Protein 1
Amino acid sequence: MVNWRGRAPSRNVEDRRGSSGGIGGAGFGRAGMGRGGTLPFFLIRLILNKFGIAGIAILAGGYFLLQAVGLDPMGMVEPPGPQTQQTTSESNEQFAFASVMLAETENVWGQIFEASGERYPQPTLVVFSGQTRSGCGGASSASGPFYCPADRKLYLDTSFFDELAERFGAPGDFASAYVIAHEVGHHVQNLTGTLSEVQQQQRSLGEAEANALQVRVELQADCYAGVWAHYADRTAGLLEEGDIAEGLDAAAAIGDDRLQRNAGRRVDPDSFTHGTSAQRQEWFMNGYRGGNPGDCDTFSNSL
């Protein structure tokens, strides 16, 4: 059980629960690349479930064809009707938890950047219900949490915490904290220039090579989450026995290989965008053991 109660929340939180907006965005754990970037995860998942790999191929072909002629595919998605969701005591509890977790990441990364003689520009956490807008396009609860480098904001529908426990079998408040710490890891990558460099490289790569590069991005964010967990445990006294195990369970639950098996599909490494369960656990622990961001170089090391 994370010792979060009584701790100061972050001031960098926007409460958009109950508002409505467009649909789109990027999936859990993946940094949104803005317009002209990757296909939105929620749309891929929907097509894959209904039409299989053939449907994805048709969707991707049409998507990139529109890009090639200068049209914005995301701008052509018709948003659904307005949605509102009354805040509940559970939602308020999750909102408070997320606010405190963001503050705890601010403390850790602020100190790490300061030790290097730099200032840590803090990200903003947008908590919404249903759907909202981001600097990278639309965001919906179906897309899962994500980070948008264009506006330096994390987007989270806290109902994902319930989905993480019930659908993915990864309960516990530290599992939820890991999700936030992973997205903050993408913010660190944005500040260091990693995200923009990867996006530039991906433009000249084929699908399998671009996916392989994205896996390295995601595993580094897992490692950065582990760096935060190191200090949350050893310095801040935030964690209790069993919390790290919850984080490892969450990392395993959302490994590409497990997700594909659970969907009844063949495991296809060329389609991985986040890494296997074992890889996600390994890189989280790489960061956790030493608390050193230098141990998170997924780009120079073999996976």
Protein 2
Amino acid sequence: MRDLPVEAREILDRGTLCYLGAPSSLGPHVTPVVFVLERGRVWGTTGRRTTKARRWRSDPVAGGLVRLGERAVAFRGAVSQYDALQPGTWPASVFRAPSLTLASLRFSRKNARFFAGYARDVTRVPLAWTPPARVIFSVNLDDGAVLDGSGIRDRWGRWGEDPPGRTKPHPTAVTRHAAPLDEAQIPDDMRALLGPQGEGVIGLAGPRGPVVLPATWARDGDGFLAVVNEPVLALAEAGTSTRAGLVVDRASRWRAAHMSGVLLRGDAHITERGVHLRPDTAVWWRGWASGTVGRP
């Protein structure tokens, strides 16, 4: 069990949503999920056929961000999945059986209000959101940092020890130069979230996998400019060109049916101004519905 900094544990214990990123050649696939901290790992569930579950089968690494007021914890680490229908996950399930049991109990207690929301919307919940269609996952907190508006308050793992730039590029950290996104393809109510500026979350493809960080953003020419505190941005070790995903969403503290958002993914260029993202794909979600547009 990793000995986390006290402040990091407080944020992870009290935070409601984790913006969790899985690696993808299109750019980090970042969406909000409910979670729980148990024995130094972040635990949650996802649909068996979701992008995250599929990507983690071939590239089991994740980056995440949990916010609590003006503070946040960013982390990255190896992913394990536990699925009764996938024999390859059974050894990990047996090895971590005590943690799996405790995490499941704590997950249910911590997120009871979301389960109440499911109960209220039970007639609308699709099969993919019900327990038989979902798998449990956990993420090691291998590297992490406690953040606030002024920068980095504390850090651990490689982020606390190694200087950046000493690893080979991760296979997803490449640019694609695809056609620009036609935002008219995004449903009108989802496109309304993409105003002239706002607050969001940006996932960057780095040399050790995706890194998810808090950002403010604004329209900028043919794309979006995401501004991230410079020392915080350096955690991604992304160089000057990579793939990125910007999340702009409207969260709910208890009803998944009321959550909505857009993930914009594309080539990203990092300059002194920040991260300039030129989207070529978008993933949107509204309650139980979701869609992808601009697939290259």
Protein 3
Amino acid sequence: YLRNQGRLERGSFIHEEIGYNFRITDLQAAIGLVQLSKIDDICRKKGEILARYHEQLDDVEQIRFIRVTEGSDYVPFRIAVFADRAMELMKHLEKEGVQIRSFFYPLHLQPAFKHLAVDRASDDMFKGAKEAYGNGLCLPSYPGLPHDDLDYVCSKVKEFYGGS
């Protein structure tokens, strides 16, 4: 649990216990240093990807991009959007060969924190976390994402909502 972020299974976002991710090898550190030398290019490409998604999906009323504070220095680690019928859209995109990620499972619902005795059924203190998890998804956005692939993703999103 300690070395795998409080979970036994990789790829799961359910954490049974509190854990960490302190695993890094010398090789990973070396790769990280090389990646840092390319950080400006990576940030530029990620910004271009976000701009292209905006160009193609801003008119789709069922998709809402996360608003970024004007003047902030923002690098889109993921292209996170809120979507009507998000879970259905994710299934549609997966069926069409597009790998999608959901938002992270809410922290207050993680089994690792069950000892805090948050009343999960009636507590609305974390309403935003619940809504984001249920309505959010992350579109593909790695720096080398080809324009054709991004255009395909957008076409499949529009197809799902009945647009062209």
Protein 4
Amino acid sequence: MKHYFLVGILKLLSASALAQDTLKINPLSISGYAEVYYLYDLNKPVNGNCPAFIYSHNRHNEFNLNLGYLKAAYKTEKVRANISFASGTYMNANYAAEPGVLKNIFEANVGFKLCGNKNLWVDVGILPSHIGFESAVSKDCPNLTRSILAENTPYFEAGAKITYTTGNGKWLFSTLALNGWQHITRLPGNSLMSWGTQLQFKPSGKVLMNYSTFIGSDKPDSVRSLRWFHNIYALLTIRDKTALILGIDIGTEESRLPVRGNNTWYSPIGILQYRLTNNWSVAGRVEYYHDRAGVIIPTGTLHGFQTIGYSLNIDYAPEKNLLLRIEGRNINSRDPIFPVANALSRNNMFVTSSIAVNF
């Protein structure tokens, strides 16, 4: 009996060593993602497009691809790199200003470790944004659609980043030099480099707090207006099955008209997700966006963009890499800004469904 037990242990150790050797030999991994969706906008836009401030899941009454990508990732102890090519209505909307093949690059960056005994990294290239808790990958977000807050802050950025993570993993510090506010190529006529910072604190596995900043200009030098932006949020896990997200964005940009000063916008948000079973979950969202001066979302109306939104989605994951979702969403504005028939409405309602697969 002891002999058989010893043989079993030796086999396990051999398998573990083989797995480690394989990782050392092949640090390259390939992955992919595809999310198809159908959205019905009850205002029935004639051109088939949702309101201009919505950049994901933005086509009415048609089956479409929101985001699909193939990704290659390389990682060793001191070097890492990522490159992924993508397509979909998300790419069409968010990369419209980029030239040529850059319209289809979802991520492309290289990084290296500065210190052998410290978790200090430099990453350069096209990177995921350091702003916000929602990404373009719907399966990683509690809600099917993205919030107004997320849709109108950068999903991606191009530049260089230095990141330090403490040994216990509780603190993360980043400083970034960027080409601009969600730009790969520099905005024509803008010679000013933009800057960003990120500070994260994880006191436990159930709490994460984040503070990110951006300072720069999203206009040509001839009409340069400096922008200061603050992104603050907390992710909380309550009794394992419940997750709560609370956040607020606050931005200020210099104004020259009618008199020199500053315009401010802000957007508080709350999201609650509850896991019913291992396969089923629900999530609700309440959000408000106040941009009276139209810095981010211009409307040309008396009160600008002052909008409150609600959404509720139900998710079903029959397999580990398959997610089916349906969501009802309502957005209500202080001024009538949403086209409906031959008039404008203060209200816009959407029903969205999606199927996402990752591999």
